[in-house]
Design goal:
169 residues; 26% strand
């Protein structure tokens, strides 16, 4: 059995999800991407200053920082992904790690879609509800544009200096 009220609810919720994602796409372009770009520049500048204070000779380009100390080197390369900037830190080929500057998307549960008709659409309604929650969480994160640094070991840093102190003590 399938109820038309549940079908209509599915269609309405999918329209809401589509509108949220469309808004998020606009926010990514106008707010999130520029903020991530500024944060990457800030990270490069802080890294440069820190490494120079430690006696390294530092060269910076638009996508790379290279620090030389005698014959040893540290390179920091950046590569863009959606909603994050990946930074690869290589310490003279001995150690390499990936640090991502990314949007902090907090997971919050929204209201459940309430239906009184248990039918063939019930499972689809649960899935749409989960998708709607993810869309709303993304929208909230895009609006707040709070950034975090996260590495491969899932360590989270809240500032460039915190990440730099972790990598270059």
């Amino acid at each position: 059995m399938y109820s038309l009220s549940n079908f209509k609810l599915l269609v309405e919720k999918q329209e809401e999800i589509d509108a949220i994602y469309q808004n998020c796409d606009e926010l990514k372009k106008t707010t999130v991407a520029p903020k991530i770009s500024c944060e990457v520049d800030h990270f490069f500048e802080c890294s440069k200053n820190h490494l120079e204070s430690q006696g390294f000779n530092v060269t910076v380009t638009t996508s790379k920082l290279k620090a030389l100390y005698k014959e040893a080197f540290i390179t920091i390369d950046k590569h863009s992904k959606d909603l994050e900037e990946c930074i690869f830190i290589n310490l003279n080929n001995y150690v390499e790690d990936q640090l991502s500057i990314m949007l902090d998307i907090e997971s919050q549960q929204s209201q459940q879609i309430i239906t009184y008709n248990k039918d063939g659409f019930s499972k689809a309604l649960e899935q749409v509800n989960d998708k709607l929650n993810r869309a709303k969480n993304l929208q909230n994160a895009c609006q707040a544009t709070k950034l975090i640094y996260k590495n491969n070991q899932n360590n989270i840093f809240h500032s460039a200096n915190e990440a730099i102190n972790y990598y270059f003590k």
